Amino acid sequence: MTRFFFHVHQCGSITEDAEGQALIDLASAFQVAIRKAWSTMATEVASGKLCLGCHIEIVNAETGERTRVPFRETLQIKGI
Question: What is the pTM (predicted TM-score) of this model?
């Protein structure tokens, strides 16, 4: 198992994940990041706003590798 951290980059501020989560692989970390993005966006929508320019940065604790998951790429947007 590898520990992954999920740092939320939201409109110029960063909320760092100090705890992280032990997961099997990067694919599993992507799924966690997508759910975190959805949760963050749901909170934004509940307050009447939504920023699709934000992202979650996945950091592999073992290798230091960083992967960006943009909020806009976690949704299917229709009707625009």
Answer: 0.91
